[in-house]
């Protein structure tokens, strides 16, 4: 029917659409892929454009398919016969002894480096999971991060403003990222000419059922390099959840390197506002590996923390694991009740911890590894203690 009567049902890849954007641009083309957070449109020139639905002022979907309605009249009698035979062959075999064809497998993990957009995109099951945005002005970030049921797991601000229910505070809290105050330079707030610059995407490929990305970055004060890092990210699914493994090696490549004593750091995520513990839209709960709950988990040492709650009618959560081989494990947590969660082993006095500043000698390195687990259900449903134990054995 899609061939003989293409307008009866417009299949994916043939939907013609006109978009008028809030910035005044007008686009026309065929939708290649559409999700809650992006629309991929192929223009008549063949160029592919990605559009954020929030940027659309007006949309007009054509009632006619891109497949010409007159196509059937171009077929010869032999073409019709060949097509009929092919369609019949697609029908289930009537012979009960005939072997059944295996059902097609769902598409797994994929990764795509897009240099023009300065990002690396990761998909699960053919749909976007996250993007490593290394062109972000202050530091590389992972945004968006899409969890179970297609639910965004991190706050949109400041990358996208005006989203209902979001507090537009702390603009340096940008989805998921790693920064700290180093040698007195405030990379946490990105003040006074400091930023993390991407130098190279070393690897972006699938390995053993995971997507793997390796990047090299320089931590800059104006035009001077303070230190460098090698970041290795792994993406996949485990135990019914999806994960990001974040491994970062900080190199004292340009002199001694000091992680300053401060609560302002380090391995960070700003969650979807519904996972907050307080506020107008807050519906979240929190617990750590030691059984401490709610806002009392702030500053406490723990192997992991977990926040969860209902979003769009589904209960989902974010667990963050601190690897046993990390320096100062179990880490202390700058885990707030308004959606910021960070693993920070350098809090010192602010956390009433013996662990404050840490020095790395010139020419040496230090490595930290974490897992972000985006799960369905409550803490109990997700079996976080077991998930943590399985991860530490890898």
What would you say this structure looks like, in words?
The chain is mainly beta and 394 residues long. The protein has 3 helices and 25 strands. The strands form 6 sheets. Strands 13-14-15-16-25-21-20-19 form an 8-stranded antiparallel beta sheet. Strands 4-3-2-1-5 form a 5-stranded antiparallel beta sheet, with no helix packed on it. It has a 4-stranded antiparallel beta sheet with strand order 6-7-8-9, with no helix packed on it. The N and C termini lie far apart (51 Å).
Structure keywords:
single chain, 25 strands, five-stranded antiparallel sheet, eight-stranded antiparallel sheet, 3 helices
Radius of gyration: 25 Å
Distance between the termini: 51 Å
Please give the number of β-strands.
25
Tally of contiguous helical segments: 3
Spell out the helices and strands N to C.
EEEEEHEEEEEEEEEEEEEEEEEEEEHH
What are the low-pLDDT stretches, counting only 5+ consecutive residues below 50?
8-12, 92-106
Shape designation: globular
Which class best fits the helix and strand makeup? mainly beta
Q: Biggest sheet: strands side by side, in what order?
A: 13-14-15-16-25-21-20-19
Name the helicity range.
under 10%
Mean pLDDT: 88
The biggest beta sheet reads: 8 strands, antiparallel
How big a fraction of the residues is strand? Answer: 35-45%
Topology:
Layout (H helix, E strand, L loop, with lengths): L14 E7 L4 E9 L4 E4 L5 E4 L4 E10 L11 H14 L18 E6 L4 E6 L2 E7 L7 E5 L30 E4 L1 E2 L2 E2 L7 E14 L2 E12 L2 E15 L2 E11 L5 E3 L6 E5 L14 E4 L15 E8 L2 E9 L10 E3 L4 E4 L14 E3 L4 E12 L2 H4 L1 H9 L2
Antiparallel strand pairs: 1-2, 1-5, 2-3, 3-4, 6-7, 7-8, 8-9, 10-18, 11-12, 13-14, 14-15, 15-16, 16-25, 17-24, 18-23, 19-20, 20-21, 21-25, 22-23
